[in-house]
Amino acid sequence: MRHFGLMSLNSVRASFGLMALAVVATAPVANAKPAPDSFADIVEELLPTVVNVSTSAAASRNPLDSEEFQQFRDFMEQFGRPAPLPEPNGRRAQSLGSGFIIDESGIIVTNNHVVAGAETITITLHDDTQFEGTLLGTDESTDLAVVKIEPGDVDLVATEWSDSDEARVGDWIVAIGNPFGLGSTVTAGIISAKARDIRSGPYDSFIQTDASINRGNSGGPSFDIEGRVVGVNTAIFSPSGGSVGIGFAIPSNIAKTIVDQLATRGEVRRGFLGTRIMPVGVDEAEVLGMDDPRGALVRSLIETGPAKDAGIEPGDVIIKFDGKDVKNARDLPLMVAQTPVGKQVRVVLWRDGEELTVSLSLGLLEQDDIAVATPPAPAPEEDDSIPGEEDLRAYGLAVTPLNRDELEDLQLPGYEAGVVVTELVEDSPFIDQGLTAGDIILEIDNADVDSAEDVASAIRSADEDGAGIMAAVIVREGQRIWLILRTR
User: Fold this and answer.
1) Catalytic residue among 218, 238, 252, 300
2) Which of 143, 338, 403, 481 could form a disulfide with 300 if both were Cys (CB 3.0 to 4.6 A apart)?
3) What is the pLDDT of residues 438-455, one digit of tens each?
């Protein structure tokens, strides 16, 4: 996976397979927008809204060795022309990308990776008029940036946002951009998929399109059939660096919220809930008494977050946030991030087999919220005569009860007992499930745990039930965490 500009998405893993296609007769689809005989009329109106974005900065490496130059040289040689040599190391490095005008006053949207580290930004209009751009703000988490130009007497043409939630798979897409620095280039395709997670950040929910987009299209718009921006082109999947018909765009409804904040205050303020979450799988749903897997399972809480203050607990499943269903764990971070700081929201939880609603006021997401000062796990005590120890050895596990002083040091209201995990051998079934030596087990399947025999009894019960699944509440570095443990 690669961005179009100077940045790569190295964390994406993708695979391709062959699938048989079956032809099925279906009824005509209502309200489907027909393909136009030509996109020429739409494109003629849209071209003035799209700009080329070029940047320069001090070079930090030998440009002859760069991946970008090697690909550019290969591209030029396809036309029988030698590639111009880049400037020597230590001089200037240049980047080319795309953008689009969203306000006649000179507000332009592009990608963060197009302008990141730039010393100068040059905006070129469709008629080749050039302006110096001023960076108003960037957001690395969504790879968006806003640039301002002063148009003076030049009349700019601005585009408008579409509602990406209303866009459907199969709808037409028109992409306009500056691939390989060639200037305004128009391609068309369809929306291939929505809500794609390409592992590029915490708020992934991309529109996938087969419209041909390449390096240099970064920051350019994807328009719907009515000429409104439905997405901001950001990344492609490409083993070779060129288009293979798999491109990704930031949905307009996500981009608009970010762009509005960058244009007005130069930064993004995101809502903060204060939960660490995990997906709800089939096993988790069964343990929790849910009919089907859904929502976001609260694994642990940040000590000073709104969720803890509102009474949300590890093991709760957030199934609705601010009136919207949470279909899976990926939905929640984006919902919270897009909600204004300080807004009073209602959160619907699944707890103990029934729904529970709590109200809370969203905080402001900051880096410091992730770091939580916690006491170290207590040192294990050796005791060779713990009842149930032999049963636990069969599962590669050893535990020791906590004494009263250790429990008081943990300051856990409502808990009067617990055991510390003193050993996990390599072939233990729990070692790959999140349990580690030093963890403190407080309860299993809603029952308090104060001895090795309690743990062994819980394991036996899980095995006898046939599923071999347990729900455990543990403490790690001062934080309560909810875990699903499988005995096999």
Assistant:
1) 218
2) 481
3) 888 988 888 888 888 888
